[in-house]
Amino acid sequence: MKRDSRQDASLREAALRALENAYAPYSNFRVGAALRTRSGELITGCNVENSVNGLAMCAETLAVASAVSQGLTEFDEIAIATEDSEPTPPCGACRQVLNEFAPNIKISSYTREGKEATWTLQELLPYAFALNPSRGRV
Ligand SMILES: [Zn+2]
Active-site positions? Predict the structure, then answer.
């Protein structure tokens, strides 16, 4: 199969665009990436640091990372769906990741059976860690 140089250029440019949205204020090691899918879509990502190192990338964290890679850093609500019998709140790491961008976010969780629960991040993470003393403290 012959490679199209325009596709290579667009993939590179997409990675460069994602780099512009990288959130790496702690290491200043900014990374952009672009993945072309088999069907020809370009999926971009960027590194998204947090004031707490070593956070895993759960669904909620990946949603935040995906939005940040597109330059979107303001969120009002996040919805979570699981197969558990009760609504599941985000794990502690995801709470911290959400706090980085949206300390007042509303969190909704749903089960397949229709149960739901809602919280504010302040309820779930009342004493968030923050390097900047003006953020995340009550
Ligand atoms: Zn999580």
Answer: 60
Q: Which residues of 31-52 are buried (b: 16+ CB within 10 A; e: fewer)?
A: ebbbeeeeeeebebbbbbbbbb
**What global pTM score does this model have?**
0.62
Within the chain, all domains assigned CATH 3.40.140.10 are found at 1-47, 56-138
CA of 121 to the centre of ligand 1 (A): 13
Nearest to 118 by CA among 127, 128, 105: 105
Fold of 56-138: Cytidine Deaminase; domain 2 (3.40.140)
Local confidence pLDDT in tens for the 138 residues of the chain: 444 566 555 856 766 787 778 788 888 867 666 555 555 666 566 677 888 877 644 677 776 787 777 776 887 776 666 767 898 898 888 899 889 988 988 888 776 787 888 899 999 999 999 886 565 555
Paired with 119 in beta bridges are 107
Look up the CATH number of domain 1-47: 3.40.140.10
Question: From ligand 1's centre to the CA of 33, what distance in Å?
Answer: 22
Q: Determine the distance separating the centroid of ligand 1 and the alpha carbon of 40, expressed in angstroms.
A: 30
